[in-house]
User: What shape does this take?
Amino acid sequence: MGRKNLLAGVDPFGKDGGEERPKEHNPLSMKDADAALFGDLAKLDTGRQTVRPIPINEIYPDIKQARRVVPTILREVWNSDPRTVTDMFNQWLDHIDAERTQAGAPRFELSDYLWSESVEKRARSEQDLENEAFRPGPMESAFLKIVELAVSIRRDGLTNPVTVEQIGARRYRLETGERRWLAFHMLLSFFNLDTGLPDERKRWERIPAIVVQELNVWRQASENTARADLNAIGKARQFAILMMDLLKTEGASFKNYEDLVPTGHCDRQYYAQVIDYRVPSGKGEMLANAMGALHRSVFTRCRTLLGLPDPVWDIADNLDISEDELLRMAKLPAHQAIEAAKQLEEIVATRNNLAATSTQENPSKKPKTPPTLPSDAALQRGKRLFSKQDEAVFKEILALRDGVGEAAPSTKQQLRTLLDQMQERIDHLKTLLENR
Assistant: This one.
């Protein structure tokens, strides 16, 4: 059965506090006592949050949310309509296959992950799948986060309901839980009668949800902080969203997201509206706590990221480029920062080719265990000298061969730039080693 057929066949995808003294003192009857006690409890009970199943087709994502689950290139063409999530998934799979083709890897088979029986039929164990040498690209890595959650939900159930705000008749907006919502869409599209797999549509057509009276950006921030996987660009968005909320209470006004971010365009301009504002007096600790920040310097770093060129912003969001790397790019002229980001994007896109080439020479030869650094506690103190992006660049350069001398001039220039960046990090390390 074709991969896309597995995602087809369904249309997928709310008086003051004082007491009044009675004029006459009358004994309190048992009935009155009951009403006084349990009546108040009943009022409290009406304010409790209840979980109820809501059709996933009636829930729309919050386009201003700090976390971006769907990659930029797909948000450019998807209008966030829940009824077209299957189409968006199929486009996502096309991009994953393009990544894999460039890396010389086989096509992505969703059934290998969602449908365990298909793994058994192929005589491939789950351990075999996990130990494959292929390293997923950015598009596949983002997709697998939803796939893995879908597998977990199908096996163990949904632990935390999503929260939604009702914005119309049979229409809700997500406050928290976009990835969980997408996982339900994936399960609904995959496990249905038309695919020949178990028909589980009734199980996934509705998602447990808490309907809140109004979307609360501070609750969103709390969940994002708790999940601890918000990347540097997401944190900058989070800072801007919370700043807007604080500043609006002091009379500030901001342009609407829809007015500043046409479909398919970079969203940085909307969040950058807060760059020139200071944190309102007395709100710094509240803002830092909401962002999970240990120091107010995080505000300055977020402002710096909000000023990045649009192409750098999008690439950084898709590749999860580290904050340290982005702060270094922010010091460069715009055209150099864009070039540096594109170079990093190219490295990530070609790294699987390099890895595949290096293992083809002698596939039976096992790599030697690399030497380890001394277990000196001082090596673990302070701020990291090398980012994850540095590590990726170093690995790719170490895999190069002497054929590099025949590379195109543009490739050579790209390598020279990367070598210069490496040399800066190494020189800094040497300086630290000389200090006493």
Remarks:
- The CA atoms of residues 47 and 239 lie 30 Å apart.
- The chain has 20 helices and five strands.
- The two ends are 66 Å apart (CA to CA).
